[in-house]
Write a structure and sequence with these properties.
Keywords: Hydrolase. InterPro entries: AB_hydrolase_1, AB_hydrolase_fold, Sig_transdc_resp-reg_C-effctor, Tscrpt_reg_LuxR_C, WH-like_DNA-bd_sf. One of its GO terms (molecular function) is DNA binding. This is Alpha/beta hydrolase. The two termini are about 25 Å apart. This protein is an alpha/beta fold. Among the domains are: about 110 residues, 2-Layer Sandwich (Beta-Lactamase), CATH 3.30.450.20; about 70 residues, Winged helix-like DNA-binding domain superfamily/Winged helix DNA-binding domain (Arc Repressor Mutant, subunit A, Orthogonal Bundle), CATH 1.10.10; about 200 residues, Rossmann fold, CATH 3.40.50. The radius of gyration is 27 Å and the shape is globular. The chain is about 45% helix and about 15% strand. It contains 24 helices and 15 strands. Strands 8-9-11-10-12-13-14-15 form an 8-stranded mixed sheet, sandwiched between helices. Strands 4-3-7-6-5 form a 5-stranded antiparallel sheet. Strands 1-2 form a two-stranded parallel sheet.
Length: about 600
Amino acid sequence: MPDSKSRTLLADQHFFLSPQLSEGQSSDDDIDLNIIASTYRSIIDEHAFDEMVASWEAKLASSGGDAEHPKVSKGLFSQLLTFRNTLEKLDVPTENDPLKLAVSEVPGPATVLSPNGNVAVINIAGERAFGKRQGAFMDAAVIAPNSLEDYRALLRAATGQGNAAQAILTILPATEGYGESFLAEGYLIRVPGQSGAHIAIRSLEIAWGPRIAERLQQAFGLTQAESEVAHLFFRLRNLESIAIERGVSLLTVRTQIKTIMAKMGAPSNIDLMRLLAMIASREHVGLRGEAPVWHDPLGREKLIEMPDGRKIAWTWMGAKRGIPVVMLRGLPMTYLLPGDGEARLRDAGICLYVPSRPGHGNSTMDSSLDVMSDNLVALRVFLDQVIGRPCLGVGLASGTLPLVVEAVANPTRFHGILAVGFSSGIDPSGVQRLPQIQRIMLQLADSAPWVAELMAKSGHRMMRQHGLDWYLERAFRHTPLNQQTVRNPDWTALIRNACEHLLKQGHATFVRELQLSRHRMDTALRELLIPMRYLAPTEDPGIDLAACRQLERINPLITVEPVTDAAELVFYQRNDLILDRIIAAAHRN
């Protein structure tokens, strides 16, 4: 069992890590100035983060033979410490993610769906009303029968198969507290670079405040009678009902509505309804659609509470009482199966258990342990209390590493391991083949974790301000296949959930994940006594098949299977193949 004392220190929250400081002036003055300048500018300039990474690349290169322990001047350290303290004092940045804005602009239930119905984002009121969480699939059960055709037309339009850009939908709430039904606007959100549109569904049930009539009269020149008609239109949504309520002819109401539309600049009834809803919502400033924290989108999460209070969370996919398979996610933002993928496991009689590793989701991290020991504690408790027998272990990228270490320490835990995707712990030489940002972050996490933590904190702030696309563009812009995957809104809905899962407890989990990825596995792989199949995506820049084949030579129980048409997001790019291998291996034992 590994020594539980930390060999790779956690990048903590207060710069307790002491960098190796150099005395006086150095030849790195220009590089240091660039680091300082780009670091501070990253607060307001989203592109300065890339310059900060490039400056640290130059810093590492300038260290020459001592690149593993770059020296930092006292002046540079002082400036970075000041920057970190500044970050702590800054307010949470204003949200610019168009999908999150759509659900935060209204106080009532709101969600944004991908074209196949996956929940991309949702607010707290939406979780209650629609009965779903981010990353889950929302079926049509909450859509009233008289609105189903309009809803399906929106789904078709999102993939370019129609032109129904907006609709008024009747929603049948999944939970009590919203009456028998409520009306919602449905409309498309087109995000640049995405292959399809998202569908926003936002409640129109907003109280009509006492000052709204006055605002309509002052801002748009409506008469008292017209403002009353506008109120009835907002409440009843039916011209005949308005005519009955006011005791006038339908023609009179139509004429009044046309006049109101002209004065307010609304070209259609739907636009008028949306504009009235926006004005009415001004009465509720401060009652925005609050964003929920991450929860298991499957609604199946259970917690193991250890005697010291530590919690280990887990969920499952597939057949509830099926053959157990344990999967650990890694650094790539993937772990949720698409709906048809889970159906395949269900039909195959397999239960895919997914424990949240330390710091992810609702699982507790123990920062007094090094990252591998922390993971092994959680994994062992989960296997003892939930599985209780040998099973197949599936690791996604760095998620493979704890499985292998545990299999060496306790050979009867698993009857086999399926390793999916590149991890620098398995092939350290692959780090040099990675794109700049991944390569530098991994190097810093190993040699200067206090810098990696600072950059992760700055990056997390950027991601909160500029949305998921800021991260996706930097993480996957160098591989065309990955770019194609992240342009698909059905996949990004699941990737978004994986990001929230990793970052729920803060950016330190990301740094720990980088450190886990650097854990050397040479000895463990050589001593492994059970079969391991390594699915190596050939378009992942970290993968070199010649280097991978070395694994087969050091241990004949390891089989390398090249996977074409796949890169870092292999879990989604070749999901059918991965499920084929899981099903075959689970049934073989």
